[in-house]
Design brief:
By secondary structure, the chain is α+β, with helices and mostly antiparallel strands. It is about 35% helix and about 10% strand. The chain has a two-stranded parallel sheet with strand order 1-2.
């Protein structure tokens, strides 16, 4: 989508990807596996590192409590469910 909009002549800034996994962010910053525990990760899985280096993507930390998509993948109850539901449905 970004490439399509850019081809139409619009100035498109970098895409921001929010991440709540600090280990994942450290692997991205390093550009590859950093220990024996992560050596199984194939280098082709680090294509996002190239996008970060090119300035097309920015990876920012966002805490688990603030990630509204977590309601789609993790069980939430009570007030947290109501708050996340409001974020997903724009307050409805």
């Amino acid at each position: 989508m970004r490439n399509f909009v850019k081809a139409q002549g619009y100035d498109v800034g970098p895409v921001i990807i929010y991440q709540d996994n600090m280990t994942c962010m450290a692997l991205m910053k390093r550009g590859g596996p950093c220990s024996d525990r992560s050596r199984h990760i194939n280098m082709r899985d680090f294509w996002l590192c190239e996008k970060v280096e090119d300035g097309e993507v920015i990876i920012e930390y966002l805490g688990k409590e603030q990630m509204f998509a977590n309601v789609l993948t993790q069980p939430v109850q009570g007030a947290q469910f109501i708050r996340k539901r409001g974020q997903l449905t724009n307050g409805m």
